[in-house]
Amino acid sequence: MKANEYLSLGQEALNRKDYQEAVNLFKEAINQGEKKEVWAGLAEAYYLLNDLPSAIWAYHKLLEIDPENEKAKLKIEEIAEQLKTLQPKKSTQRIKFKAEEDFLWIKRQERWEKFFIKGVNLGLSLPGYFPGEYPIKMETYLKWFSLIYEMGVNTIRVYALQSPGFYQALFEFNQDEPKLFLLQGIWYEPEKAEDLEDERFLKRLKEHLKDVVDAIHGNTTLPEKPGLPSGRYLWDVSPYLLGYLFGREPEACLVKAYNELYERKTQDFYGKYLYVEKGNPFEVWNAKILDHLLTYSYETYQSIPLVSVVNWITLDPLEHPTESHIEEEEAFFTGRRPNLKRCNENEDMEVFDTFKIKSSFNCFFSSYHIYPYYPDFMNYEFLEEKRPYLAYLKRLKARHQGQALVVAEFGIPTSRASAHWHPHGWTHGGKNEVEQGKILVEMIKDIKEAGYAGYAIFSWTDEWFKVNWLFMNYYLPRDRKRLWFNLQDPEENYGLVEVYPGYPKKKITLEGNLKEWEDAFTVYKTNKSLTQEGEIKSIRLTHDEGFLYLLIETYKKIDFKKVNFLVGIDTGYQEYGEFVFPLDIDLISPVGLKFLIHLAGKNSSRILVASAYNKMLSHGKFFSPKKEVFPQKSLEGKWSLVLCKTNMRRITKDFKRFFGPKFFNLSMLRFGSLKPESKDFNSLADFYVKDNLIEVRLPWELLNFSDPSSRKMFWKEGNNLYKQSDGIRVVAISYKPDLENPPRALKLLDFVPQPFTKEQVKTYLWDGWEMPSFHTRLKKSYFILKRYLKNEET
After folding, report:
1. Strands 745-752 and 693-699
2. 511-522 burial by CB neighbour count: b if 16+ within 10 A, else e?
3. Which of 79, 366, 521, 758 could pair with 354 in a Cys bridge, judged by C-beta atoms 3.0 to 4.6 Å apart?
């Protein structure tokens, strides 16, 4: 799109009150060269988001271009006066929490009642930004809080100190009555175990603890620092503070190294508010930090809040016989022990037992991140159980008997790919949003039945900047990942809110609507008066920040019993790739093909990759001894499925039981529509067929693009990791299928282009982008959870 189109969409977003989306649209218009009107629109968007400092900045940028702009001058004066009059705000509400035995309790109006956390985790990022840029503004938070509360949730968990706008929104949302409580995370990232004893590190950490507590009480102004929030914290949200969650998921190697610094000697610690008896060094260190936080909170604000420390089940205090160490496994399988130069993150090698942390002030509870599919012991240890997730929850709760225990994070991604297998299908992705909602409800039931004190679903929105281990090596350059969406990646797709490319809606909805294709690039088009079965009328291409879309239009209604299709895709450099089609098709492609779409029916369509370009296999020396991954020229018809390995082979600690590796098929194409009202709706739909139209949606990552925003494609050759694509080219074939011997072709029906020469193949090029457009939609999982939670109340 051009600058004026982004400007027009930005103004439309303002009219629709989509102010957060408008910011991105105006910023991209600026990147494209549009200036005066865009800066005015951006300033207004910031103002309507209640981000007053950013609004002043944008109005000043407008004055640099248009020094006589009276409106900008007046708005700067008006906003400056608003900022001057801002005063600290205190709530008159008095609410307290405590952790006693197995439960959390809330005190309102001098009466203690049990409080069960029904929470959701809230991230920090939006498309186009890293979390440390704090792009989410006050008015967006207010909008989200209403939706979260309407779902039936009573708690929000955040991972780190937020920008002032978050606390202002929470304060205002809770003014009439406390509706949402806060689990405030405190983030820290030591590089090595020695940091935990380093005076400078501890000084910075304790200063940060102070900043967080002061911010909660609306009593601090923080200067600008890279990666940290800044500004005036004037809104006292301490009445809505459920508790502090300290830290992040501790890495086993960090815990191991710290415990070994003290020769694993058990220690006792007796602080003012917390104590530990016979704890390992890491357990004691965490108790000391939390005791420091509590001491500061009480001495400064006469408040003793609930506290917890983030833990996960790789460090649980249970024994897991199915989770052998990688070193032992390698020795068993290969006959030689690996020579490891660094610590290996084994999933059952260290213990962080938070049950040992006690409080005589009833202010500590334990919290774990508990997913059903990871680590592997969550699958293999409970194969005989009808409800394996519940079985694990009960085992862990038995260890924490008499202590309030919360599942602080759990979730199911709506990604196209799965990164971990699960025996009952609760996999790490590969689920559509209806399946996501149903599984989350079952997990909540298990959490309640196991006697936990609450939960927090991960997460509220999809987040584009996140990366999963399956794909992290293929995001190149990595710092541009925030600019595009990958439906394949589980980490990006945990949200109950879909964050999808394009504004104000999806560019292509897979519903057979030709109007959506009016502005698409025409690859091929013909007009015939007399037509036969399978003849192709047109092919079109378009794209957005997440997908390449393809339309095949035929002259007659498509019947897969009579006609199938092969669509070859060249993603760049036409001299490279596979030139021979499968299925005994007697044609040579005029350009080197990297991918081949095989459209053979609603349940039997797939995408294949030229074998040398199969990064999931070639990277592991399957096709290339040099571990090179690029589409080498081939006339052998070598095509392969795109398979990812989700689980490695495993063996039990006693070496008596073996579990083979698991794979997930990324080649399968799912039939469905993206229109929520459609009977064919499937949020993971790859293609749709209606009458004489076939629409295909292909994630950029599936086509080996490492950064579509700069047209970079993964290309590992020599010292190179990527190349810039010189454009996409498409050829297509229709054929009569052999129904008795599928997928064999009986007869070639049509092909495009004609003649089948490289001179006739058109090239699709697109402009890059520096700020993506997006829109949001509540997934069907949101409404499934809302229905369950509301019925639960009644």
Report:
1. unpaired
2. bbeeebbeebbe
3. 366
What does DSSP assign to residue 39? Answer: H
pTM for the predicted model, two decimal places: 0.97
Cis before 625? omega within 30: no
pLDDT one-digit tens code per residue, 80-117: 999 999 999 998 888 999 999 999 999 988 899 999 99
The domains of the chain, with CATH numbers, are 3-85 (1.25.40.10), 101-498+775-793 (3.20.20.80), 508-767 (no CATH)
User: 426 pLDDT exceeds 90?
Assistant: yes
Residue 197, SS3? helix
Residue 623 scores a pLDDT above 70:
no
Q: How many CA atoms lie within 13 A of 617 on its CB side?
A: 18
pLDDT classification of 122: cutoffs 50, 70, 90:
very high
Say what the alpha-carbon torsion angle 305, 154, 394, 243 is, to the nearest 10 degrees: -10
- Our measurement of the distance from residue 396's CA atom to the centroid of its chain's CA atoms, rounded to an integer in Å, reads 27
Half-sphere CA count of 62, side-chain side, radius 13 A: 25
**How far, in Å, are 356, 408, 486, 589 from residue 279 at the CA level?**
7, 23, 43, 68
- Do 683 and 432 touch, CB atoms closer than 8 A? yes
Q: What pLDDT is attached to residue 338? A: 76
User: Cα(160)–Cα(139) distance, rounded to whole angstroms?
Assistant: 19
Q: CA 762, CA 569: separation in Å to the nearest integer?
A: 12
Residue 552 contacts residue 565 (beta carbons within 8 Å): yes
309-318 pLDDT per residue, tens: 999 999 999 9
Contacts of 208 (CB under 8 A, 6+ apart): 161, 186, 188
| Residue-level pLDDT at 530 | 75
Predicted confidence band of residue 621 (pLDDT cuts 50, 70, 90): very low
Question: Residue 358 has what DSSP assignment?
Answer: E
Kindly state the average pLDDT of the residues 157-186.
Answer: 97
CB burial string 42-56: b at 16+ within 10 A, e below: bbbbbbbbbbbebbb
pLDDT, position 626: 67
Q: Which residue has the tokens 């069960």?
A: 116
| Strands, E assignment, 671-728 | 687-690, 693-699, 705-707, 712-717, 720-724
Strand, coil or helix: what is 783?
helix
d(Cα 283, Cα 315) in Å, to the nearest integer? 11
Query: According to the model, what pLDDT value does residue 528 have?
Result: 83
Q: CA-CA distance, 49 to 134, in Å (whole number)?
A: 13
DSSP 8-state assignment for residue 483: G
Q: What pairing do the DSSP bridges indicate for beta strands 720-724 and 712-717?
A: antiparallel
The strand pair at 307-312 and 241-246 is best described as parallel
Each residue's pLDDT tens digit, 14-26: 999 999 999 999 9
Q: What is the largest CA-CA distance in the chain?
A: 90
Percent of the chain exceeding pLDDT 90 equals: 91
Q: Look at the alpha carbons of 71, 76, 78, 82 in this order and tell me if their dihedral is positive or negative.
A: positive
Give 556's DSSP letter.
S
Q: Which two tokens stand for residue 182?
A: 């806060």
C-alpha distances (whole Å) from 480 to each of 24, 225, 722 are: 15, 22, 14
pLDDT reported for residue 331: 86
CA distances from 453 to 396, 403, 788 (A): 13, 9, 18
619 has pLDDT over 70: no
Please report the pLDDT score of residue 343 as a whole number. 83
